[in-house]
Specification:
The complex is a heterodimer of chains A (251) and B (419). Chain A has a domain of 163 residues: Rossmann fold (3-Layer(aba) Sandwich), CATH 3.40.50.300. In chain A, 35% of the residues lie in helices and 26% in strands. Chain A is α/β, with parallel strands linked by helices and 251 residues long. In chain A, the strands form two sheets. Chain A has a six-stranded mixed sheet with strand order 6-7-8-3-9-10, with helices on both faces. In chain A, strands 2-1-4-5 form a four-stranded antiparallel sheet, with helices on one face. The C terminus of chain A is likely disordered. Chain A starts with a strand and ends in a 15-residue tail after the last strand. Chain A is built from seven helices and ten strands. In chain A, helix 3 packs parallel to helix 5 and helix 5 packs parallel to helix 6. In chain A, strand 1 and strand 2 form a beta hairpin. Chain B has two domains: 198 residues, no CATH class; 207 residues, no CATH class. Chain B is α+β, with helices and mostly antiparallel strands and 419 residues long. The model of chain B has no long low-confidence stretch (mean pLDDT 87). In chain B, the strands form two sheets. Chain B has a six-stranded mixed barrel, surrounded by four helices. Classes of the chains: A alpha/beta (251), B alpha+beta (419).
Chain lengths: 251, 419
């Protein structure tokens, strides 16, 4: 079952009179539970594509259907709600909130969600504080940081910070996790451990992971690799929608 | 605590130095406003108290005819039975603690060479000191004796102008109640040093026997002055006096009872404009603080652009991002304002307990209604504490909205790309 369908997606930026086509007619179908790496040289459109997949940016033309919903028909509030409820992010620089503890950082997406639900007239109340705390602690345990729950990000190593970021991304059980160069700031040993953790979660929970990366370690673990070049899909290891042969997917 | 308050509070604490700088500006601004307002209230108090202590008293009872022609000091419009009136005043209002009769009249004071027109007062020396402070301001010599009919107490400025000193004789001439002129010598037994307090009242004091020797045996009492224990605040003082006047209006319908507020009308009008001045002071100081808050929150926004991106990526709405930064401004403003209340409280406490010497502050400068030998005491004004704090919060809220709007307008993609 496809969770994301991109059809003829273009994204054009204008800088003065110059027109930059960051994405140029992307057709891509992503199935639920995929562990997919989007690769390509700098400027090939990886980050733009990830932003569009994450509803952080809108395509200039084309349509994107997410789990049956045409995202082009959503307004700003609708896109915010979609990000809040369905998608999670893992960033290259971890981007934990420095004034919140590990547990509070992991709770944050649930708190934002609960706050939004409580704020909606007629909507059911969101999760209570106790439930949010229990879910966060469970997820912190899943990433192996139970003993760090009350620490602040500044007290953690880079690898530990990224584990927290992963826990934060997964705590609301999203359909899709978008990871933008998640291993770029980690040494290879830690990067390998983080990727194995993600792979494990992907296998156990069926969460779809989409990476934007240059990292060989990610490509080694990806079941599908989509290569972008000049805003177009150059290769797709699944064979669907690819314009050239790519590396074989690895299980 | 909500997540927005939690993040806002911790960020304010995390950037303690810049919060402290902004907070200190607010603290100083609000503290000075409270202290300034307290001094103004103290000056109001001292001015009105001076009127009560030397001229208008707490409450003045005169005949309607006298009030209508008060500037002319008419001696034919006296109170018929002053003893009965005094007894009636004490009975009508239990708040009145003492009463005293007075008769103001004009004299020419002379040293036989030069002369000057002065206002004089016939007083009952014992009763007068229960109502007015003139007796306690005798700097040299002594206050009048009740039965002495050839003694005078003179303001030092009058004696100085005429080259007279304690023990000298002063020649007083005046129009009598029989409408002829009379002159007599009086021994200067006391010199009063408080000239400011004597404006609008006598600068030469005679006992009733002495005054009657000069002006005629039938010299009437033209006013009855009343005293009451000092109220905690000026407003309470004015209200108490007004209430006493209305009680007396009912008890003594043939006479006119005038509260202190009627004599201080012009001063009280001036007080309003002074209040506006103090409000302008707080507006200007808090505008400076507002610029500080805008800068502080802007710095906070720019140091946390990626954080804003993350919050937006996780579905936080632009409105909530705005609220987050507005709350940071409010916390900074509340802390600064609260510190301002403490500073203001300490300043007022010092000024209320230790007081400030007028002569120490201004030397011998003539301050009009304020006696130079007085001690200026700050007044506690709860209203200025409330105004200062509320205004501090309002300014913080308004100032924080500017950078907060900027934070809310950031596109998540731009924020996440920000280095």
């Amino acid at each position: 079952m496809s969770v994301l369908e991109l059809s003829k997606i273009t994204r054009v930026y204008r800088k003065g009179e110059t027109e930059v086509r960051a994405l140029d007619g992307i057709d891509l179908c992503i199935e639920a539970g995929e562990f997919l790496a989007i690769v390509g040289p700098s400027g090939s459109g990886k980050t733009t594509m990830l932003n569009i997949l994450g509803c952080l940016d809108s395509p200039t033309t084309g349509s994107i259907v997410y789990d049956g919903t045409d995202l082009g028909k959503l307004d700003e509030a609708g896109l915010s709600a979609y990000r809040r409820d369905r998608i999670s992010f893992v960033f290259q620089s971890f981007n934990l909130i420095p004034v919140l503890t590990v547990r509070e950082n992991v709770e944050l997406p649930l708190v934002i969600e609960a706050r939004a639900r409580r704020g909606k007239k007629g909507a059911e109340g969101g999760r209570g504080d106790a439930e949010i705390k229990a879910l966060a602690l469970k997820m912190i345990e899943a990433v192996g940081l139970s003993d760090k729950a009350d620490r602040y990000p500044r007290e953690l190593s880079g690898g530990q910070e990224q584990r927290v970021a992963i826990a934060r991304a997964l705590v609301k059980t999203p359909l899709v996790v978008l990871a933008d160069e998640p291993t770029a700031n980690l040494d290879s040993k830690t990067a390998g451990e983080i990727l194995d953790l993600m792979k494990d979660i992907n296998a156990k929970m069926g969460t779809t992971f989409i990476f934007s990366t240059h990292d060989r370690l990610v490509m080694e673990r990806a079941r599908r690799i989509v290569t972008l070049h000049d805003g177009r899909v150059a290769t797709d290891s699944s064979g669907a929608g690819a314009t050239g042969a790519g590396p074989a997917g690895r299980a | 605590m909500g997540v927005l308050w939690k993040i806002a509070l911790r960020n304010v604490l995390r950037h303690g130095k810049r919060t402290a700088i902004t907070g200190i500006v607010m603290m100083v601004g609000i503290g000075l406003f409270i202290a300034y307002d307290s001094i103004l209230a103290g000056m109001d108090r001292i001015s009105i108290d001076t009127m009560i202590d030397y001229s208008s008293s707490y409450l003045k009872v005169r005949t309607p005819g006298y009030v209508a022609d008060a500037m002319g000091l008419p001696l034919d419009k006296g109170i018929a039975d002053p003893e009965a009136v005094m007894a009636a005043i004490l009975k009508a209002d239990p708040g009145v603690s003492a009463v005293a009769p007075r008769t103001l009249f004009l004299v020419q004071a002379s040293n036989y060479i030069d002369s000057s027109p002065q206002m004089a007062a016939a007083v009952d020396p014992l009763r007068d000191r229960e109502v007015f402070k003139v007796a306690s301001d005798v700097h040299e010599g002594s206050w009048l004796r009740p039965t002495a009919d050839r003694e005078a107490v003179v303001a030092m400025s009058v004696a100085r102008d005429l080259g007279l000193k304690l023990g000298d004789s002063i020649l007083l001439s005046a129009r009598t109640i029989y409408d002829n002129d009379n002159a007599d010598e009086f021994l200067i037994v006391g010199l009063i040093d408080n000239t400011a307090g004597l404006s609008g009242t006598g600068s030469i004091y005679l006992s009733y026997p002495a005054a009657r020797a000069l002006l005629g045996e039938g010299l009437p009492v033209t006013e009855i002055d009343a005293a009451a224990p000092r109220a905690a605040s000026l407003d309470a003082e004015l209200a108490g006096s007004a209430k006493a006047a209305s009680l007396l209006a009912a008890a003594l319908p043939a006479l006119t009872s005038q509260p202190i507020g009627e004599f201080a009308k012009d001063y009280l009008a001036l007080r309003e404009s002074k209040s506006k001045g103090s409000f302008m002071l707080i507006v200007m100081i808090l505008l400076i603080a507002a610029v500080g808050i805008v800068n502080t929150i802007l710095m906070s926004v720019y140091s946390r652009v990626r954080e804003i991106g993350v919050l937006r990526a996780y579905g936080m709405t632009a409105a909530d991002v705005k609220k987050l930064f507005v709350r940071e401004g409010l916390i900074t403003g509340a802390a600064g304002s609260a510190a301002g209340l403490v500073l203001g409280g300490l300043l007022v406490w010092y000024m209320a307990s230790a007081g400030l010497s007028i002569s120490g502050l201004f030397g011998n400068l003539d301050l009009g209604a304020i006696p130079v030998n007085a001690v200026l005491r700050g007044e506690w004004k709860p209203g200025s504490f409330v105004t200062g704090f509320a205004f501090g919060l309002l300014v913080s809220w308004l100032a924080a909205r500017i950078p907060a709007k900027r934070a809310a307008r950031m596109q998540p993609t731009d924020a996440l790309r920000f280095v």
